[in-house]
Each structure stands twice: as C-alpha cells, then as structure tokens.
Amino acid sequence: MPVEALMDDDLDELAWLNLDDVSQTLDVSEIEHLYQTLELEEARIEVEISDCVEHRNSVDTRLAQLSALHKSVEATILLVKPMQRVIDATAGNAGAISGHVRELDQERVKLEHALNTVKETVELKSRLSELLTAMETRDVDRASLLVHEYKATSSDTLDSPFIAFASDSSPPRDIIAAATKELVERVTFMFNTAVESSNTREIGRCFRLFPQLGETQRGLDLYSEFLCAAITDKTRLAQVHTTYALRITRLFEAIASVVDNNFALVEQYYGRGYVLRIIQRLQMEGARRACLVLDFFEEERQVKRRLAQIQQVDVAKPRPLVKAKAEKDDGISDGDFKDIASILAEVVLIGRQVAAFNRFLESRAQPEALLLLGDPETQARVFLSTESLNKLVPLSSALPNTMHVDAQTGLVAHTQLTSRVEWLTNVYVELETFCVQRSMAKAMALDDTNELSGWDSAVISDVEARAQGPMVQTSSCVGDVFFVAKTALEHAVAVQQPRAVEAIAQCVLEAFGEFVRVMGQQAVEKWADVASVQRRILVALNNLDLANVYLQKMVDEVRIRLNTEWARLPETDKTKGQNAIDSLSAISSKLLQAQQHSIDQLSSSLLKPCMRSILQHSYRDIKYVLSDEEFNDVQSDNLFQQRFNLRIRKLGHQLRPRLLPSTYTLVVDAMCACLVYDWERAIRQSKFNMLGGMMFEKDVRFVQLCLEQEAGGVLRAKFAKLVQMARVVAEPAETSVAGVDKDVRALLANRVDVQPN
Fold this sequence. Notes:
Blueprint: H1 2-15, H2 19-23, H3 28-54, H4 56-137, H5 140-150, H6 155-158, H7 163-166, H8 172-196, H9 200-209, H10 216-235, H11 244-270, H12 275-300, H13 303-311, H14 334-371, H15 376-382, H16 386-391, E1 404-405, E2 412-413, H17 416-445, H18 476-495, H19 498-524, H20 530-565, H21 571-582, H22 587-618, H23 628-636, H24 639-655, H25 661-684, H26 690-711, H27 720-730, H28 742-745
Antiparallel strand pairs: 1-2
C-alpha cells in the first residue's frame, strides 16, 4: 500500500524526468531523490505485470467469445441482405404512392373550391332573382338587405366561369350597381318625404337603410340636416324672449338633447365613431345660429355705441369723496349705467353658455375621436372635409380658411363662433372694467363714515364711557367694494377665457389701489371737531383690517370656483387663471402699509396724549426712594397701580366698542409703544433706592399684565427694556449687571444708595 500511494503522487514527477538531466546531476540530495523515484516506478511496473499475469485466463476467455461473436455477425449479414432488397423496393413504391396521394389532395381542394363557387353562384342567382322581385314589388327593406349580402360575396365567385349561369342577361355587378343606385334614390326620396310629413318612424327606417347600401355619408348628412331642422323647431319658442342669453341657452340645450338622444342610434346602425359626423354638423349649425343671435344682440343692445361711450369717459379720473348728487362728471347717466350693467350681465351669461356648450361637445366627441386615431381611412369617411365645412359657412361671414377637424377632439376648430367669442370677450373686458371702476368709485363716494351711529363723543382717557347705542365699526364702502370685486372675478371665471381673468384681476388691483389711497386719506383729513377726526381714523383702521380678511376669503373662494368650473380646460389656461387670481394677494401688503400709516396717525393724535396723561396722572405724588415703612405702605395700597388700572380701563372701554377685535389688538400694541417711550424717559429722570427699584419692578409687571389683558396676547417684547431697567434699579449694589445694555446700566447713577464708581 505505501508503494501504491506513492506511485500516484510521483507520476507527475516521473513525467518530466530526462535521462540526460539525470546523468548530469551532481548534487547528492538530488541523486538520492531520483534514486527513490526510480525505485518507486520500478515497483509500480512490477505491480502492473503481476496483475496481468493473474488475470490471463479471463482475458483469453473474452477473446474467444469475441471471435465467436464475429462469426455470428457474418451469418446475420448474409440473412439480412435479401430483406434489405425487399425494403428498398417497397420504399420506391411508397414514394410513388405518396405523389399520387398529393395529387389527389390537390384535386380535392380544387373540387371543393369549385363546389363552393357553384354553391355561391347558385345563391347569387337566387339573391339576384329575389332582388329583381323586390325591386319590382318596391320592397326596399328586402332589396337593401340583399344588396348588403351581395357585398359579402367573394371576388372569386364573381370572376368564376359559372357567373354566366347566375344571370342570363347582364353581369351581376351591373345588376347590383343599377339596383343600388335606384335604391339609394328611392330611400333618399322616402327620407325627404318623411321629413316633410314629420314621420319620425319612416325617417328612422330610412336612416337604418343607408349603411346597408354603402351610403353612410349620405345617411349621416341627411340625418344631420333633419336634426338641424328639428333644432329650429325646438328653438322657435325661445325667439319670443327678449333676453338673448336665454335664446342661446335654449339653442345649446336643444343641440345637447339631440346629441344625447341620437348617440346610441347612430352607434347601433353605423358603428363606433360615426356619430362624430353628426356632432360636427350640429356644432356648425350651433355656431351659425349663435352668431345670428349675437348679431341681433349687438344691434339691438347698441353695443358699439355703448363701447364708444365708455371709451370717451376717463373712468380713472379721481372722484370727490362725498356723497354723489344728481350731477355726473363722466357724461353717463344712471339710466345709461343700468343699460351697460344689463348688457354686461347678458354678455357673461352668453359667454358661460358658449363655454359650457363647447365642453359638452368635447365630452361627447373626444372618446369617439380617440377610437379613430389609428384608422385614417375611417377618419376620412367620418370627418367633414374642409370643402364641406366651407359650404356650411354663410358667404357673408369673412372667415380665414383655417377651419378643420381636430383629430384629437373630433370637433371643428376655428368655427365662425370662435371669432365671435373673441369679440364677446373683448366686449366683456371693456364693460366689466368700466363697471368695476365706476361701481368702486361710487361705493367710495357714497361711503357713510360720517353718518355712522354711536360716534358722537370723542375718546378721552379720563372720562368714563357713556352708555350709548350699538356702534357701527366699519363703513359701507368695504362690503360694497369687495362685492363689486368678487362679482367681477366670478364673471371672469364664468366666461372661461384666461385673458378675461387676467384683465379683470389687473383692473381689480388698480381699483383696490385707489381704495387703499382713499382709506389712507381719511386718516389724515383735517376736521373741525376731535370726534370726527377720531371716527375717520378708527373707521379707516377697521375698514383696512376687514378688507384684509375679505381679500383672503375672496381669493380663496374665486380660486376654488375657477378650479371647479375650469376642470376640463387645458392646464395652460388653468395655470394662467390661477396666477391671475393669486396676484390679487399683493393687495394685502398695501392694506397693511395703509393700516400702519393710520395707526401712526392715531398714535400722534390720540394714543400718545392719552398714554402720557395716564402716566402723569398715575405718577402724581409717587416716588421710588422708599423707607421700609413706606415700602410696606405702598405694597398694601399701591396708588400708581390703582390709578393706572382705572384710567387704562376707561380708555379701553371707550376704544373697544369702536374697533374690531383684531384692530383693537393692534391699537393696544401701539398704546404700549407710546407708553414705554414716555415711561423710559421719565424713569431716567427719577431717583431710586433698592426698595423703590423693587416697587418699580412690580409696577412694570403690573402694567404689562394690564395691557396684555386688554390686547389678549403677549407683550413681553414691548416691555423688555423696562424690565431690564427695573432689574438694574432693584438689584443690590454689589450685584453684577453684566449683559445689560450700557444705557440701562447708567441708571445706577440714579440710585441714591449706590456710591458712584
């Protein structure tokens, strides 16, 4: 076993041994290694030789068996040769039979085709016979059905040699063509007769026969003409109305009803997508009739004259802020303005109805148009051609040759109504702009600030509020102005034209600029009595605060309305409209600036004198150099806090009913600023000891608490410096005041118990 194990490991080494290399080896260790390797190789060879000797008998036996098997194979070959000759002959016969079978299959196919041709020819002859009979008996329904079945006959049948058997006189193609032509004329005549007699059942019957005769376009066109005539009957009652918006509404409602009522019928007998031809025809009819209504509207309402009258008026000219009398400096009377407003209302309703009509047609046509996008051949059969569209436009309408059917929506683009909608939008913008400017100017001129109830007495800090009736805090112009602005923006959204929204939003911005200017002017006007001055300033503050609330609410509501009504408009149009509405938020900054300016005016005229008077009255006979006994007496009976609380409550009781809650908070904030300024100046001129400083700190905390209760919020920032000053004068002399402002630390010089450094 050791020899066998080593043999496998040294086989690779023996493979590279070379006798010349062995003979040249001189190293003793290598010679010994080679010697051991040769011994192992010798042992391996001896083992293999021993194995061969041991198995010699079995090898001889197998060789004998192989020799016997060779003889058996030779005998088998001799037996197979005759069989092979038979198989070769049989294979030749099978090939010949297969060829004959193939020929028989081909003959069978030809025979079946011939039988089918004969059968179809017999059927064709039968149908031709029935067709001729039906034509003689005027059975239009049966004849149309036979023509439809003939169209399903294969061309091989019509070209077969048996075709002469089908007809003894004329070729079947000629017979069918003549019958088809005659049937189309008959059905057309029957359709027209049924239309004249208003026989709807016969109209429907004829409409169903046209696709069987291969005249889908003729059937759809005739049916479209019938529907257009039906629309005329439905809208005839609306002609008695003098409101043109109602006429257009009735027209569009009639068309929508016709489309919905006939949609399934056309789809059933003509197939999906074919209703587009009727929708396009009804769209053109609606555009034509709507343009006629707009022409009458323009003429009867004298729109051109009103527009010329508006263009001659300088509506941007500032108007006196007094109650309007009978005189008019713009040349437009109240009656004229009412007429313009009524025209504007009709224009808005017409624009809304036109937009709704377009959205309705698009909702019905677009799904059908998408089905035909991949089928240009069907599109060509269904869509109205440019030539057909031009024939539907009156010769008096000078339109550019841009009408075409949009493959995406299935509707006609750039109809004659498109140009009239542009005209309508321009008219709307001019009328709405004039009405907004005129109405806002009138609202501000008729402002009732001077007539508000409850403002007879002036605000005085040392007088208790007298009992009086409920006070009206805002004037009429705020609600009127925002009603006008919101109504105009809702009109613009209803028209569903982005440029209309942009124009009206810009007009509202300019009008609100004038409103802010007027409110600011009220705060600086000079009046003989103090009560009038206070009333105009406080009412202006309330108006500006309320206007800011109304503005945000108006923007949010108009934006929601736009997103709802413009849901089916393109995203670019919706984005333009939203941006125009959002631009109105810029008014908020102007309102805040005007509000701050009014508060400054209120501070100079009322708050500063009041707060100074309250502070002086509260500090009467008050000192901050206190002994222990005086400190205890002040703690038990603080006259400063009592006086201040009494006076500030009196002032609050007079201001609170005059102001809105949010406005009152701003005014209290301004009161704090006035008080802190005067108080800081007074404290820098006062003397303290530590006990007096502690009392001053308590007074500051008390005043801050009183004003916070009035404001309903935190005023810590307003009193931050006073609190620092109180801490400086209340701390012991040896306490560090690091981190306190330099000017505050200077108060230490006012401490009588601290030696100057």
